[in-house]
Each structure stands twice: as structure tokens, then as C-alpha cells.
Design a protein that fits this description.
Blueprint (H helix, E strand, L loop, with lengths): L2 H26 L26 E6 L9 H16 L3 E6 L6 H12 L4 E4 L5 H7 L7 E5 L8 E6 L1 H15 L4 E6 L4 H15 L6 E6 L6 H13 L4 E4 L5 H8 L3 E6 L10 E7 L2 H12 L7 E4 L6 E4 L7 H16 L9 E2 L5 E3 L7 H4 L20
Parallel strand pairs: 1-2, 1-3, 3-4, 4-5, 5-11, 6-7, 6-8, 8-9, 9-10
Antiparallel strand pairs: 10-12, 13-14
Helix pairs in contact: 2-9, 3-4, 5-6, 5-10, 7-8
Length: 389
């Protein structure tokens, strides 16, 4: 074999070895995974908005919450607010706040404590609230039964005379002596209006009825209320109504075998045998609206006077022995008050001196109703201070 041929074969072998080695290396090489894609940028999540602070609401009560009447009814309204608005509100109350200079101190304390809405629940708080309101412009003040307002003070009331009238209708039917008795608190138009409406209701079914009144000059005084009720019964009254805040009048009637009504709240349990019905106030509709006004920024000063029409006044738990035709009449009165077809104070109405105070076919307006200082025909005596302007 020639040298040239040997060199050719050696070169070819070397080339084949290199190709084989390259192929073997390629076969043994592991496939590298594709690089992972870069993570998408994470959008920034805004922090949750801070929860608004609850509206702090305070109630000032003239009596104890356990009085079974006026203050008890207001406190039921407070509880209705808590149920309606949950953690949007925080409520508190101060009970047995006297209608005196001390009321001003309490109102200031409540405002200083951060309450942005304050309810004063009796007539005698009017002047103290008027003094305090200008010093706390960011607080909404609500005054029950008053008639003076300010930029941040408005008034509200219930047409308790509607309940008194319905009680009178029942009393006029149930009396055997034709003598009714009323234990009066203080002789302001609200109370005088209720006494008169009670008498008008009784006279609508029994013209022979007369009404006697004993004043105790306090809203809540069970001993005085008991004494007054006893005096009325001893004087011949066999059916009693009250415009005071405790259950003492009904309890006295129960003990003395006479009949009476619950006032402001359902008082059946305090004298089940004596109880003829309860003229109740439901403050929940107004309190709910007032609080919602503040929460929604819609609150404005003014005056509200709610009754049967708005669900604020009712006659409940009428006794089983009240005749069916009387119960039917009560239902008709309620319906008429709701739709406006019935008016309690529609003339002719005379006072107990014979003077016409509401002309025939005339319906007394709210201004007239708010200033009543006389007794209607059938009520004995004079309104204390009623002849003074």
C-alpha cells in the first residue's frame, strides 16, 4: 500500500471518529427547560376606607326608665333606634333629670361627651336646651313637646289628645256614675288639651258625663298620683284617666274596684281588672326618622307633631267587657284620623262658661290647639292660671 493511500485512510478514519464523537455528545446532552416567564406585576390593592365613627346619641329623661309610662315609652323608642341602625349609632340615656337649672348642666355634659344628637324628652327642658344649643353648633338637639326652635334645635310631639279622646269614648260607655276623673300633672296646654279631649270623647257617646280634675303639679310622683286618684274615686268618679307618668292611678283603681286607663304605655299588667285600655305613644317612627335625617345629612330645624296617622298614637288592649259597638267606634275613629276624614276638635265646641271656642263646622288648627288654656263644657273648675296670658 502506498504511503499516499495510507495517509488518506488515516485521515478518513480520524474524520469519522470526530463525527461519531460529536453525535454521541449531542445524544447525551440534556434538554434545558425554557426559562420561566417573568411574573406579572401585582396591582397595588388600596387599603380599606376607615369605618365611619358611629353617631353618638343621648336621651335625657325626666323620670325613671321603669316608670311604666312616659319615660318607658321614650326608652322603647331609643331601643328601636339601636335595632334599626345597629353599629351606625351608639345611644345612652340619663334618667330622672329635673326640669330645672340642673337640666342645662346635663345637656352641656352630654354635648361635651361627644354626643352629636341629643333628645330632651319633657316640656321643662325647653329653656335649658335653648341656652345650650348655640354653644354646640355641630350637635343636633331635639326637644319633645316644646314650641321654640333654633338653627340646631327642633321640636317634636305626639298628638296624645287623640288617645285621650278614644279613652273618653270608652269611659263614656262604661261609667255608671257619669262622673269621670283625671289626675293632671302640670297645667300646660298639652295636659289641658288631653283633659278636654277625654271629655269630648265621653260626651260624644254620653252627654251626661262630667269630668273632675285633681292636679299633682309633677310628672312622676306615685304617692301624689295615688292620693289624687283616691280623692277622685271618693268624690264619685268611677272611671279614671291620667296625664302623669306612673302606673299609680291604674293601681289605685284596681285596689278600689274602679276602672282606669293606661297612659303612654300599655299598663294592663299593673291593674288587669281595672284596665279599660291604654292610650299609648310609639316614639319609634319619629326617632327612627330623626336619626336617619342626621345620618344622611338631611336634618333641618322645624316642628313635628305626629299622631294616629303616622303610627305614633294608638288605643290598645281594650278590655273584654267593653261593648263590641264601642270597639267598632274606636276602629272607625282610628281610620278617620288616619285618612283625615275625622277631626276631634270640630265645632261647635264651648268652654265650661258657655263661650263658643270653636265655631260650628270649623276645625281647630294646630296653632289654636297649642294654646288651649280653658276647660270645655263638662269639665269642672278652672285651669290654674288659665286666665293669664
Amino acid at each position: 500500500m502506498t504511503d499516499l493511500k495510507k495517509r488518506f485512510l488515516l485521515k478518513a478514519a480520524t474524520l469519522m471518529s470526530a463525527v461519531a464523537a460529536a453525535a454521541l455528545a449531542a445524544c447525551s446532552k440534556k434538554e434545558e427547560p425554557a426559562p420561566a416567564p417573568a411574573p406579572a406585576p401585582v396591582a397595588a390593592v388600596p387599603a380599606p376606607a376607615p369605618k365611619p365613627e358611629p353617631l353618638k346619641i343621648a336621651f335625657a329623661y325626666v323620670g325613671p326608665v321603669g316608670d311604666g309610662g312616659w319615660t318607658f315609652a321614650h326608652d322603647n323608642g331609643r331601643k328601636a333606634v339601636e335595632k334599626e341602625f345597629g353599629d351606625k349609632v351608639v345611644t345612652s340615656f340619663v334618667e330622672k333629670v329635673p326640669e330645672s337649672a340642673d337640666a342645662e348642666r346635663v345637656m352641656r355634659d352630654l354635648a361635651t361627651q361627644g354626643n352629636k344628637m341629643i333628645f330632651g324628652t319633657t316640656f321643662g327642658y325647653m329653656e335649658p336646651m335653648l341656652k345650650v344649643a348655640p354653644d354646640f353648633k355641630d350637635v343636633k338637639f331635639e326637644h319633645a313637646t316644646g314650641y321654640k326652635t333654633a338653627d340646631n334645635l327642633r321640636t317634636y310631639d305626639s298628638r296624645t289628645y287623640e288617645g285621650a279622646y278614644m279613652a273618653g269614648v270608652i269611659a263614656g260607655k262604661m261609667t255608671k256614675t257619669n262622673t269621670l276623673g283625671v289626675v293632671g300633672s302640670v297645667p300646660i296646654p298639652e295636659v289641658v288639651r288631653n283633659i278636654n279631649s277625654f271629655t269630648l270623647g265621653a260626651q260624644s257617646v254620653n252627654p251626661k258625663v262630667k269630668t273632675r280634675v285633681v292636679w299633682v303639679n309633677e310628672w312622676f310622683s306615685p304617692p301624689k298620683e295615688t292620693e289624687a286618684a283616691t280623692s277622685l274615686i271618693n268624690g264619685g268618679a268611677d272611671v279614671l284617666m291620667q296625664n302623669t307618668d306612673s302606673s299609680a292611678v291604674l293601681q289605685t283603681a284596681e285596689k278600689m274596684g274602679k276602672r282606669a286607663f293606661g297612659w303612654d304605655s300599655d299598663m294592663t299588667a299593673y291593674g288587669p281588672k281595672a284596665h279599660l285600655g291604654s292610650a299609648v305613644i310609639n316614639w319609634a317612627p319619629y326617632y327612627t326618622k330623626a336619626v336617619r335625617d342626621v345620618l344622611e345629612g338631611k336634618w333641618a330645624t322645624g316642628q313635628a307633631w305626629w299622631g294616629v296617622k303616622e303610627g305614633a298614637i294608638d288605643m290598645v288592649s281594650i278590655a273584654a267587657d267593653v261593648p263590641d259597638d264601642t270597639k267598632k267606634k274606636i276602629d272607625e275613629i282610628k281610620a278617620g284620623l288616619k285618612d283625615g276624614s275625622f277631626s276631634i276638635w270640630k265645632g261647635p265646641i264651648t268652654d265650661n262658661t258657655g263661650k263658643v271656642v270653636v265655631a260650628k263646622d270649623t276645625v281647630a288648627d294646630d296653632k289654636f290647639m297649642g294654646g288651649i288654656n280653658f276647660f270645655v263644657k263638662g269639665v269642672e273648675g278652672k285651669v290654674p292660671g288659665g286666665d293669664k296670658k
